[in-house]
Design brief:
The chain has 535 residues and is of the alpha/beta class. 33% of the residues lie in helices and 23% in strands. The protein has 16 helices and 20 strands. The chain has helices at residues 27-36, 50-58, 88-91, 102-110, 199-210, 219-234, 248-261, 279-290, 301-308, 314-336, 348-355, 369-372, 391-400, 405-408, 428-447, 500-513; strands at residues 16-21, 41-45, 66-71, 97-100, 114-116, 122-131, 146-155, 158-161, 166-170, 178-181, 184-187, 240-243, 265-271, 294-299, 341-343, 381-383, 456-470, 473-486, 494-495, 517-522. A 9-stranded mixed beta sheet has the order 2-1-3-4-11-10-9-6-7, sandwiched between helices. Helix 3 (88-91) links the parallel strand 3 (66-71) and strand 4 (97-100). Helix 9 (301-308) packs antiparallel against helix 10 (314-336) and helix 15 (428-447) runs antiparallel to helix 16. The radius of gyration is 25 Å and the shape is globular. The structure holds xanthosine-5'-monophosphate.
Length: 535
C-alpha cells in the first residue's frame, strides 16, 4: 500500500520552525531564509490543527521539536469575511511566535488591537525607528537605546493601536510597525526580503536568540543524515527501484540511495517518447560513465502515445502519464522480484503545487506527475529523499555529490516531458515539432551565452495554424511559441527580455528547419498569472 507517511524526505526528526502560510507572496521566502540561516523550517497551511503543533512543541527527541512559529503575510485583510484565520489557541501557545505583515495584524486583531483598513497603504521602503529589544538585538549603534533602518513594506491595512503590547518600532505612517508581548512578536514590514536592511539579522535573532534554535540545516549534514535515514528505512535487505529521468531531481535521488544501499538499488529509465532531442543517449552514457549503478532501460514510446490518444485536457494528460509510469515501474519491480520501495525525485514545490486543498486558501495548481499520478493502492512503499528541498538546494546537494555537468547544468524538465509543452492532443507530428524547435531554442541560447542565465527555455506547439509562403505558394503551418523564463525556484517566474537578434535567429531557424511551421511567437506572460509550462 502506498503510504505517504512512510516517505523518507520529511525532516520530522529535525528540530524546526514552522511557517504558517496565509497565502502571502513571500511565504516560501521566509522558509528559505530560515534554512539559509541554518535552521530547518517548513511551510504548513494556516489551518493546521493546533493539536498537531502542540505535539511538535511538546515532542522530546525523535519526532523533531517545533521551536517557534512564524505567521506569514496574506493578500487578505483581517476584516474580510472568509479571510484566513488560524485557531486563536495557536497565538496563545507557550512558544516564540513571530507575525509578519498580515500575521502581525492577525495577532493584534486577536488580542484586542485596532487594525485600520486600507487607510494608509505603504508599499516599498520605509524608515523604521526601533528600540533595542530581542528582535532588534545588536542592531542599534553601540550604547544607543534606539536605531533606524530601511525596511520593506507591502500592506494595505495597518495596526493603529495595540494596548497591552510593547511597541518596539514605528515608521512615519505606521504607528505599530513592530511589537512584542512576552515571546510573541509582530512586524508590519518584511524582514525576509532583501530590501529590508539587516532583515537576516532580525530573523537570526528570532531563530537563535528568541526560539533558542540550534544550527541544524546545511547541505553537507543533509547528505550524511539522509544517507543514514535511507539505510534505516530500507533496512539491511530492502530493495529499491528508482524512476530515473536524467533530470537533476531523480538523478540526485538515485545517487543518494545508491550511496546508502549500493546495488540493492535499480534505476529504471523509461523512454516514453516525450523526451528531448538526444536525451536518451545523454542519460544512458552519463550514468554508465559516471556511476556504478544498475540501470534498466524500458522502451515504452508506443504505450505512452497510445495512452494519450484523444486526450486534450492537460490534467488528464498528466494523470495518464503518471499512472503509466507507475504501472511500468511496478512491472519492472515484479520482473526483478523482491522489490519493496519505489524512489522518486519529488521536490518541495512539486508537493506544494500538487497539494491542492491542504488548506482552504490554496488550490491545486498542477498535478506534478511524481505526486499526482500515484494510484490509491501502490504495492511499493515510497521513498522521496529530497521531498523537502527547493530546486537550488537540490542543485547544491547534486554538486556536493559530484553530479556530472550535463545533468547539473541542464534546465529543469517536467515529469510529463514534452506532453507539458504540446497544447491539446499529443500527436507524433506535434511532438516532433516541439522537440526540434526546443532543440533550436536551447542551441541558440547556448550560442548567444544566454543558456546559463535563464531558468528554462523551450518551444510550445498547439493546434493553431497560420498562413505562410513557401517558395511562391501559400501554405498553412503550425504556430510555435517560444518560452524563456527566469526564476529562482519556479513558484514565480518572469519572461526573459531576450535581445531581438537572439529571438530572430531562433525564429528563422525554426521556420527554415522544422517542417510544418510557418509562424513563431514569444510568450510574454509571467507566473502568475501564467504557469511556466502551458499544460
Ligand atoms: P509550472 O508549469 O507549474 O512549473 O509553473 C513549475 C516548474 O515545475 C516543472 N514541472 C514539473 N516537474 N513534474 C516535475 O518534476 C511535473 O509534473 C512538472 N510539471 C511542471 C516545470 O518545468 C517548472 O520548472
Amino acid at each position: 500500500m502506498s503510504d505517504r507517511n512512510s516517505i523518507i524526505g520529511n525532516q520530522k526528526a529535525k528540530d524546526r520552525v514552522v511557517v504558517l502560510d496565509f497565502g502571502g507572496q513571500y511565504s516560501h521566502l521566509i522558509v528559505r531564509r530560515c534554512r539559509e540561516l541554518g535552521v530547518y523550517a517548513e511551510l504548513l497551511p494556516y489551518d493546521t490543527p493546533v493539536e498537531e503543533l502542540k505535539r511538535g512543541i511538546e515532542s522530546e527527541g525523535g519526532e523533531g521539536k517545533i521551536n517557534g512559529i512564524i505567521l506569514s503575510g496574506s493578500p487578505f485583510s483581517v476584516h474580510e469575511p472568509g479571510s484566513p484565520r488560524c485557531n486563536s489557541e495557536i497565538i496563545d501557545l507557550d512558544i516564540p511566535i513571530l507575525g509578519i505583515c498580515y500575521g502581525a495584524q492577525l495577532i493584534a486583531y486577536t488580542k484586542g488591537g485596532v487594525v485600520g483598513e486600507g487607510m494608509k497603504s505603504e508599499f516599498g521602503r520605509a524608515e523604521l525607528i526601533f528600540e533595542d529589544s530581542g528582535l532588534f538585538y545588536g542592531l542599534t549603534e553601540r550604547g544607543s537605546e534606539s536605531g533606524k533602518m530601511n525596511v520593506w513594506m507591502s500592506h494595505g491595512d495597518l495596526i493603529e493601536q495595540f494596548d497591552g503590547a510593547d511597541i518596539i518600532g514605528h515608521t512615519m505612517n505606521t504607528p505599530v510597525a513592530a511589537f512584542r508581548i512576552a515571546n510573541t512578536y509582530g512586524v508590519q514590514f518584511h524582514p525576509e526580503v532583501h530590501h529590508t536592511d539587516k532583515g537576516d539579522k532580525i530573523l537570526w535573532n528570532f531563530l537563535y536568540e528568541i526560539c533558542g534554535c540550534e544550527r541544524n540545516w546545511a547541505i553537507e549534514s543533509f547528505i550524511n543524515d539522509k544517507i543514514e535515514d535511507i539505510k534505516r528505512v530500507i533496512g539491511a535487505e530492502g530493495r529499491v527501484i528508482c524512476g530515473l529521468s536524467g533530470g537533476i531531481d531523480s538523478s540526485t535521488t538515485a545517487v543518494l540511495i545508491n550511496k546508502a544501499i549500493g546495488d540493492r538499488l535499480t534505476c529504471i529509465f523509461v523512454d516514453n517518447g516525450l523526451l528531448r532531442e538526444g536525451e536518451k543517449e545523454m542519460v544512458i552514457t552519463t550514468f554508465k560513465n559516471n556511476f556504478n549503478m544498475k540501470l534498466v532501460f524500458v522502451d515504452a514510446k508506443e504505450r505512452f502515445l497510445k495512452g494519450l490518444w484523444g486526450v486534450k485536457d492537460a490534467e488528464v494528460k498528466r494523470k495518464v502519464i503518471g499512472e503509466l509510469f507507475i504501472i511500468i515501474f511496478e512491472e519492472e519491480a515484479n520482473k526483478l522480484g523482491n522489490v519493496d520501495f519505489l524512489a522518486q525525485g519529488t521536490i518541495y514545490p512539486d508537493r506544494i503545487e500538487s497539494a491542492g486543498a491542504s488548506s482552504q486558501k490554496s488550490s491545486r495548481i498542477k498535478s506534478h506527475h511524481n505526486v499526482g499520478g500515484l494510484p490509491e493502492k501502490l504495492e511499493l512503499k515510497l521513498v522521496e529523499p529530497i521531498a523537502d528541498l527547493y530546486k537550488d538546494e537540490v542543485r547544491e546537494v547534486a554538486k556536493e555529490l559530484g553530479m556530472p555537468l550535463p545533468i547539473l547544468n541542464q534546465h529543469p524538465f517536467p515529469g510529463p516531458g514534452l506532453a507539458a509543452r504540446v497544447i491539446g492532443e499529443v500527436t507524433e507530428e506535434k511532438l516532433r515539432i516541439c522537440r526540434e524547435a526546443s532543440d533550436i531554442v536551447e542551441a541558440e541560447l547556448e550560442n548567444s551565452g544566454w543558456y546559463d542565465k535563464v531558468w528554462q527555455a523551450f518551444a510550445i506547439v498547439g493546434d493553431d495554424v497560420a498562413t505562410g509562403v513557401l517558395g511562391d505558394a501559400r501554405s498553412l503551418g503550425r504556430i510555435v511559441m517560444i518560452r524563456v523564463v527566469e526564476s529562482k525556484e519556479a513558484m514565480t517566474a518572469d519572461f526573459v527580455k531576450l535581445p531581438y537578434d537572439v529571438l530572430e535567429s531562433m525564429s528563422k531557424r525554426i521556420t527554415n528547419e522544422v517542417k510544418g511551421v510557418t509562424w513563431v511567437t514569444y510568450a510574454i506572460s509571467s507566473k502568475p498569472p501564467a504557469t511556466i509550462e502551458p499544460c
